[in-house]
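TL;DR need structure tokens for one chain.
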Amino acid sequence: MSFLVNKKTYWFEEEGRYKTRTFLKKKEEEDKNLPD
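>> reply
TL;DR here they are.
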């Protein structure tokens, strides 16, 4: 599970860390269900 922390950062509970939208850009293109 992940959730939006701010417009550029997501918190990934299962990994116990944050990821940025830049890092996730490729995945966002594949998964349009992520929050904007």
